[in-house]
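INTERNAL AUDIT FORM
Audit reference: QA-55
Scope: verify that the stored structure record matches its stored sequence.
Auditor: D.O.
Record contents follow.
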Amino acid sequence: MFTDPRTGAQHQAPSLKDPSSRDLSVVIPAYNEENRLPPMLDEALKYLEARQRRHLSFTYEVLVVDDGSTDKTTEVALAYSSRLGFDRVRVMTLPRNRGKGYAVCRGMFASRGRHVLMADADGATRFADIEAVEEALKKLLGKDGELAIACGSRAHLEKESIAKRSYFRTLLMLGFHALVWALCVRGVRDTQCGFKLLSREAAWKTFSRLHVQRWAFDVEMLYIAQRLGIPVAEVAVTWTEIEGSKLVPFWSWLQMGRDLLFISLRYLTGAWSLELHHKEQ
């Protein structure tokens, strides 16, 4: 359900299986992001509003999914909805924290866009880089295609990031990448960048089969896409590290490594399949 902050009315969320009614949906998962969310929304909405003024037929929506925050994330997001209108900025508040993957999934299922972008609440990726990601998606789709995914990538920054990281963190990062390549996804150098654009049909086919609810969900999503033959492109984006990350380096990498093993083993043993895992809730 979505709440219109101007009227207080409750609105039923639309379905990803409905025909699209917007050109672009932007899904932003947010957990305790009252401080980092405003700059991100300011940048994104400034770009989207300017694009709409340049191209009057362009339509968009922003969906903020509050993943059970204990701060004022929902109130902050609702202020934008009140100012710009419920039709442009919608806020979904989950009753408890379920994980980034679950929050993105909920937003995807409630989106109305022909293309659906997932973007992190910290604003680490320059939002205007959506143009390069869109161009890659269009090339994959061609004239009549319905299935494609374009991933923002920080792989071109790898040498720089290694130079700034401790030896231990670099070792963890390289180990994670090696596990991804060995167990799940090949051909995508940066699976974890939170800036990914999907065609509407690709969003349905991948997220309706998703099992992982936390940080490693990107890997499973791309694994599903590759298993289903959905074309995937990787596009370099401008990325800046933002303070306030929710990831605790050692334990988060450890949890993601465990999830990678689970993804591989559960698909190999048949515990998980590519059948639809869950319907929209």
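Auditor finding: record pair retrieved intact. The chain has a mean pLDDT of 88.
Action required: none
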